[in-house]
Amino acid sequence: MSALGDLAEVLRAEGGLLAAATRDPAPGADYGPAAAAPPALGLVLEAIREGYALHYADPRILDTADRDLGLLAGDRLYALGLARLAERGDTEAVVALAGIIAASASAHARGVPADAEEAWRTGTERLADRARPPEDGASEGPGGPGGGV
């Protein structure tokens, strides 16, 4: 299963309004950097990207006809992703993703959504690179071998 599919399962397991609004992801709906990331980071990236989509684009796994519920669901998914990182002690990744969220909000407030996409691209690529184990496997970071997440 993909990280986006895993996220849908997490939301269903939590129950409540979001569980009822969760649908299976369409084929190919995964966010590219999340699909290429280690599984723990992939789920985090998908949660935060879906949160972003609920605020600024078309969500991939949540059907929320109510705009206010969509915004609250987006905030919940931002929190879910950041909390998972915090639980692992990866404060650097929390700061990096909070920066992506803030840069995206700023870009949309300025009417330059392309800047938001650039923040997502560069920020998630850096996180995915950081989470991959080095070729020789010698480095360890906050999350264990390979630097965390």
Question: Overview of this structure, please?
Answer:
- The chain has 149 residues and is mainly α.
- It is 67% helix and 3% strand.
- It has a two-stranded antiparallel sheet.
- Helix 6 packs antiparallel against helix 7.
- The longest helix has 21 residues.
- The protein is globular and about 45 Å long.
- The C terminus is likely disordered.
Keywords:
149 residues; mainly alpha; two-stranded antiparallel ribbon; globular
Helices and strands in order, then pairings?
Elements: H1 3-14, H2 16-21, H3 32-36, H4 39-56, H5 67-87, H6 91-109, H7 113-131, E1 140-141, E2 144-145
Antiparallel strand pairs: 1-2
Helix pairs in contact: 1-4, 4-5, 5-6, 6-7
The number of strands is 2
Tally of helical segments: 7
State the helical fraction. 55-70%
**C-alpha Rg (nearest Å):** 15 Å
Looking at the structure, what is the overall shape?
globular
Order of the strands making up the biggest sheet: 1-2
What is the H/E order? HHHHHHHEE
Q: Kindly, what is the distance between the CA atoms of the first and last residues, rounded to a whole number of angstroms?
A: 19 Å
Mean pLDDT: 89
Query: What fraction of residues sit in β-strands?
Result: under 5%
What is the SS-derived class? mainly alpha
